[in-house]
Automatic annotation (TrEMBL):
GO terms for molecular function: translation release factor activity. Belongs to the prokaryotic/mitochondrial release factor family. It holds the Pfam family PCRF. This is Prokaryotic-type class I peptide chain release factors domain-containing protein. Keywords: Methylation, Protein biosynthesis. Residues 287-303 form the Prokaryotic-type class I peptide chain release factors domain. Transmembrane segments: none annotated. PROSITE patterns: RF_PROK_I (PS00745). The lineage of its organism: Eukaryota, Metazoa, Ecdysozoa, Arthropoda, Hexapoda. InterPro entries: PCRF (IPR005139), Pep_chain_release_fac_I (IPR000352), Pep_chain_release_fac_I_sf (IPR045853), Prokaryotic/Mito_RF (IPR050057).
């Protein structure tokens, strides 16, 4: 007990002399400790997020990330040392501050470990002291692990569109005729199930069915937390390989379906504001086709809108009301114009930077569904899973693959940020 009291007294003196904020780490009753509380509760996804193979280890101990952190620290110190009125600079400071806070806290914890080593020399005979020191070291090491995960998480540059909570999801049959339409219907049902499982809100804006019950084209308004972030990597060409039910010779056919994920320009934080002028629009009405009873075939309820400057065309005939169809069509048109402007800017400024896994080109084959082998292969990450029946339920199988894509994207985004700093420094 005397030893512990002496150690406590020496501890406070060391803290005072070394100006290290370590008072909360002394050997007190656990209920009196003010332990570090992480800002987020992390699952195994975050732990696995930075464990993928690559050109270098994605950890805070890697030379590349250490250099990246030092660059950020110098940038932060330079910015805060000056009086700034520029909005973008202040925004940059706000982005860097939590990184620097975590970085400083991590440095303090390593300082605590150094002091513990000084207070417990290797030749110490005090078993109780050694045991207490070991307990404290374990506590600090666990806190450092948590801080490392938090720091790696905030180091990943923010993608503004990931905050988008409203999208239009479009599914269109591609090559393959009726078989492509049948597969499009299966994908449509899968995404609807996924949306329901995520507790998001959806509304069908357009749905054009084939004679065999397939789907020619469908548009969904989807809203919910992180909806764009989770569905953005579904955009592209989905390929199916199977024997169609109408095939008599047993040959395997290959068909395709295209999926588009379009963020709606409804958030003020987004880059563009889409304004539709009457002189730029050609609005046409016609009688709806397909199911819906006698009413849709006798009234001009379907709406077709052409945006003259871009040539973008949208149609809506999902509702019996022409007014409602006009609203749906205008919203889809705004979204498509926004996506057109966004793609144009990205093409000009990024020179095909792969911030997403693969490119955002709609013509890229992203996934293959092989029915004979009961497998799904995502070509962007080379990942293959089995059990098509379970996957098309839109539950854990699809969600796991989407999360894997997000993990790889976040890692790629961090590596791109590090590479960009090296390039700007001429290294």
């Amino acid at each position: 007990m005397i030893q512990i009291l002496r150690l406590r007294r020496y501890f406070f003196q060391s803290v005072k002399n070394k100006s290290i904020n370590i008072i909360r780490c002394i050997w007190l009753n656990p209920c009196l400790r003010k332990l570090h509380q992480p800002n987020h509760v992390y699952s195994l996804d975050l732990i696995k997020k930075y464990s993928t193979d690559g050109s270098f280890d994605v950890s805070l101990d890697s030379p590349e990330i250490q250099k990246y952190l030092e660059n950020l620290r110098h940038e932060y110190e330079l910015l805060v040392s000056q009086t700034q009125t520029d909005k973008n600079i202040n925004k940059r400071i706000l982005y860097l501050k939590p990184i620097m806070d975590l970085f400083q806290e991590r440095s303090n914890l390593y300082g605590n470990l150094t002091i513990l080593d000084e207070l417990t020399p290797a030749n110490s005979q005090d078993d109780e002291l050694i045991s207490l020191a070991k307990e404290e070291k374990n506590m600090y090491n666990e806190k450092i692990k948590t801080l490392n995960l938090e720091l790696l998480d905030v180091l990943v540059p923010v993608e503004p569109l990931d905050e988008c909570t409203e999208i239009i999801l479009e599914i269109s049959a591609g090559v393959g005729g009726q078989e492509a339409m049948l597969f499009a219907r299966e994908l449509f049902d899968m995404y609807c199930s996924y949306i329901v499982n995520k507790a998001w809100v959806m509304q069908i804006a357009e749905q054009v069915l084939s004679d065999l019950g397939g789907l020619r084209h469908a548009s969904l308004f989807v809203s919910g937390s992180q909806v764009y972030q989770h569905l953005k990597h579904e955009a592209g060409v989905h390929r199916v390989q199977r024997i169609p039910s109408t095939e008599k010779s047993g040959r395997v056919h290959t068909s395709t379906v295209t999926v588009a994920t379009l963020p709606q320009p409804t958030m003020l934080s987004l880059i563009f504001e889409v304004i539709l002028k009457d002189k730029d629009l050609r609005i046409e009405t016609k009688r709806s086709s397909g199911a819906g009873g006698q009413h849709v075939n006798t009234t001009d309820s379907a709406v077709r809108i052409v945006h003259l400057p871009t040539g973008i065309v949208v149609e809506s005939q999902v509702d019996r009301s022409q007014i409602k169809n006009r609203e749906f069509a205008l919203q889809r048109l705004k979204t498509k114009i926004y996506q057109h402007q966004l793609d144009k800017q990205m093409a000009e400024t990024q020179a095909k930077r792969k911030m997403q896994v693969g490119s955002s080109l709609r013509s890229e084959k992203i996934r293959t569904y092989n029915y004979n082998q009961d497998r799904i292969t995502d070509h962007r990450i080379g990942n293959t899973v089995h059990n098509l029946k379970s996957f098309f339920l839109g539950e854990e199988g699809l969600d796991t693959l989407i999360r894997q894509l997000l993990i790889v994207e976040r890692r790629a985004r961090l590596l791109q940020a590090i590479t960009s700093i090296d390039t700007s420094n001429g290294t």
